[in-house]
Structures
1.
Amino acid sequence: MIITIFGATGIVGRHLVKQALIMGHQVKAFGRNVYTADFRENENLTLVPGALFDETQVSRALVGSDAVLSAIGGPSSGMDKTRSLGMKNIATQMINTGVSRIVAIGSMGILDDPGEGNGLMMDLADYPEKLKEADMDHYKAFTFLSASGLDWTMVCPPEIRNADPTGLYKTAVDFAPALNNPYINAGDLSLFMLNELEKELYIRKRVAIWNT
């Protein structure tokens, strides 16, 4: 499979690139700083420098690909719109280039509340205030995907730890897990995303994931 990975130089992105190559996929790693990211040379790896908001550069990175993995992120500031506007451009160019499958990272805040109340986790009164601005941008990205007609899956992790995969994780569809202080290793998050590309178990679903 030929996979374009956006956010390839971030914590999760680096795990995605490494694991995708181990699995035998052809990888196009997209980002502003891909040439300084110290990726190991691999005949199946193509470094694609570019800006996430540039329509032409994103489109070129998608031509010929079978699927997309998005690990784009950004600061927690409410002024930053990297997640939403970046996803809007990715989705638009996917439609333009005929690429239909994407697995993207969201946040646990955009999952449904597992309690008796209705609404999203980020709407709860006791939800951490410091997370709400970034979660709102994740939610806008989610709405762009939902309206796109693409075959999307949005993985919604709790705290991400920069650690290798263990294979010991659980998932839930649309609802957040009722757990105290859940977390996920970046390696396990990446493993799930790559497996989901092949298995397609959660098309047009939000997925909670956490280490056990």
2.
Amino acid sequence: MSRKVRDYFELVSPQWDVMRKNFYGEDVREAVLNAVHLGPSDTVLDIGAGTGFLTEAAAKIASKVIAVDLSRGMSEEAIAKMGSGNVEFRIGNVESMPLQDSSVDAVIGNMVLHHCPHPEIAISEISRVLKPSGRIAISDLQEHSYEWLRKEHADLWLGFRMEEVAAMMKKNRLDNVKVDALPSCCSSMQEEQQIKIPMFLASALKRDSRERKLVV
């Protein structure tokens, strides 16, 4: 990820939990966790974990959560809030993650892709670290035209077309791909007017390369 993105989140990290509540609500977290079907024996990777919006809830279900974020400040806020427990915090880039191949059972993330210089590389990295038959569920912004978000919130992409996200997933050994609109929107303020940007939820399974189709 870019220095611009890292610097932005370092700056806002002390206020992020308050800021985030104005952008999106708890229903987004519920949708992501429902889609990924976590179990008590799972090792889960939370990409762009921030101050623990998804991490904290996942840690109550899974055996272990690895929370990766580019910003040390955001990770420190998360640790101060929830402690470590069964969560391992790592500073890292989503496009080059500090994890071994096929090392996690599930990947979750919220509002990460639009901060990635190369979203397709991020999807490839997610597929790489997932175990065969592992699950992914991530939420983000649908395509929009609010250019000012590039400056105010260090957005690198103005959301994504849902079919574009589905294509990136299918290209990277992910099956059962589903990309649907969320009932939630991301809200923000511009010149004292509230805008609402539709969000999506993308989920998939990693193909098990050991599986062979039965030839009749």
3.
Amino acid sequence: MYLQRNMTPPVVKNLIIANCVALLATTLLPFGDDIIAKFALFNVESPFFHSYQIFTYMFLHGGVSHLFFNMFALWMFGRTLEYELGSQRFLTYYMVCGIGAALLQLGVGYAEYMHALDANGMMGARYLLQIPTVGASGAVYGLLLAFGVLHPNNVIMLIFPPIAMKAKWFVLVYGLLELFFGVSGYQAGVAHFAHLGGMLWGLGLLLWWRKSRKIFF
């Protein structure tokens, strides 16, 4: 099936629809909080943790603005990548980045929990078991990485601040910022290591595909 480049390809379109439906469900349904409690990503030591959450968490969002920026980036970068990689490979890439982001977030969350447990005891560490991670950001950061790798010299116009930047520098700056915020503790409440996890798993998969001669860059 031939798709014009100005059309939104099927995987990107259906991912956006799925994320929008999930936000409507958690916002409008009377059991929306139960959906979050069951399908968001919790610390592995939490009684709320289930293994399937490494997949389901990426379809949940904390509000309209959170959803909008993730879906805008998915639409903006995902269309080009889906056309170039093909729908099946694009979906595989997106899911690997999202699940990889969850795995790194779980590892960092477990380390933080154990550190808090040693330093403050169970009462001081318990709050870490009740904080869920939601959002497609890890998978979306993987898309940013892929765009920067495959189109390093394409110019991206930032919104804040409004400056033009080549894709390779855009990805590098965002990756370094996420590493800084994650290590320093600034911007608490944002899963910075999930963002880094999406980028790292995405890079690994791209390199594997290149080694297997499935893609060329």
4.
Amino acid sequence: MSATAPSNRRIPSGERPSSEPGPVEASGPVESKDARAADRALYRGPIDVPLLAVTLLLVSFGIVMVYSASAVFAARSHGSAQYYLLRQASFAIVGITGMTVASRIDYRFLRKLTYPMLGGTVFLLMLVIAGFGRAGGGAARWLKVGPVTLQPAELAKVVIILWLAHSLSKKQEKIKTFSVGFLPHLLMTGFLMILCLKQPDFGSSMVLLLLTFGLMFVAGAKSGYILGAIVAALPVAYHLVMGTAYRRRRWEAFVDPWAHRHDISYQLVESLLGFGAGGTTGLGLGDSRQKLFFLPEAHTDFISAIVGEELGFVGMIALLFGYSFLLYRGISIALRARDDYGTYVAFGISMLFALQVLINLGVAMGLLPTKGLTLPMVSYGGSSLVINLCAVGILLSISRACVRPETARAPAVNKKLGELEVAS
């Protein structure tokens, strides 16, 4: 064929096709100003309203469920049934403000902050393991400065996505090489995982690893390298679980919860009883029995058991539908992003939400060993809620620069989809 199909590749800043004449010297400044204005206009489109709507619905639902799950406990522990309600509502206001700000900032600006954010996150994680961390639930994972409490591991999940997106898009031509496209990303993630494990926070470490493998696969890294790393990690994971007393006990509780009904499996069994008591339509909002000091952490990691008990199977399906729609909008934004960086960031954030939902619900339903991960936008927790909402704000920012559905996907996505079609 003599004719060549038009290329969908995004033209980097400063590159000009040879057939396009350059500006003459006299009109250069005018054209340069117009070009910059046109470029800014491309990244100032409307936000993804469905994504914003489902996010606000999940946050509102979370505030209601936190109050329902915590009122009795808060009245006894803090003297006010509204204690956790008011705090969660305050976190939501801060998070929505952060989401609004993030949605109005050109997401490409985050690339300039990649290494400062990464360095700051490493510093905060080191402060935690150096003894400045605030203990809770058998681990020191929080930093407290006055009234502000931050969990650096939550921040690390978003920062690793931003760093991977920057690095993978920069190294796209060498992504299939081991020394450039694979090893550096695995080493950086491994370093952050070690810092999380020192807290200890095994759940966040696994999320970091899965995010890295997922984004490298999307970027086009060799599947053999990823599978090899997974196989090599299995003995390490086995040692981390079986070589630590409390993790081994959690594994035993997972394998046979009813055999340890009154000790190590108490929390899991009470969670299962909550789901079972809910039936099809639930006992009614506010009528949970498990929250009456039977189920520990009812308003945090195990809030889904209260949802299942009060709203039943129907309520859980509605909640899962909300998360599924959130994931759908995130992937849609990733596929329509204007550049590879935006594609990887959107995929990473969507994957982060999916992993946390699957792990949290899997733990509460006895399908996975116990991990300390919250249910995004629903569980009580300031760091989790604020950081997750800021991550949604980044998704909204990327959506403002999305190409129309009928136009081409980002170059990296086209390449990856082509490889999958050839393989099939």
